[in-house]
Amino acid sequence: MNENGKQIVAIDGSKEHGAHIISKKGLCPEGMFVRQGYSPVPATNTAIRRMIKETDGGYFEEMRSLEQDLSFEAAQKEFSERNILLGEAQMKTLGIITHDGVYTNLGLPLSGRHF
What we know:
- By secondary structure, the protein is α+β, with helices and mostly antiparallel strands.
- Helix content is 29%, strand content 13%.
- It is built from 4 helices and 5 strands.
- The chain has helices at residues 45-56, 73-81, 88-94, 107-111, and strands at 2-3, 6-7, 20-21, 32-36, 39-42.
- The strands form 2 sheets. Strands 3-4-5 form a 3-stranded antiparallel beta sheet, with no helix packed on it.
- Strand 4 and strand 5 form a beta hairpin.
- The relative contact order is 0.12.
């Protein structure tokens, strides 16, 4: 756009994109920051879930879990007693882990964690 013979570029920065994540803290308010005005502030759980939904799709079970420190020892023991393998490949097939190794909300109950 030109104004008074000068080239003007307009940038719309109103959306909440560009969240910053502290990798060792993960997707939680202590580990994820969004810009509010000129300052970074911790993202709320609601904001984190909204951003995940925007990138992951619409089904809650398929969305990446905010909890990534999950253990499936009890589930694997139960499966093993029934001669059923519950390894990474099976967890991916069941939708407990995404193809890039991220736990989904579907995995929370099997891990013993609650929503």
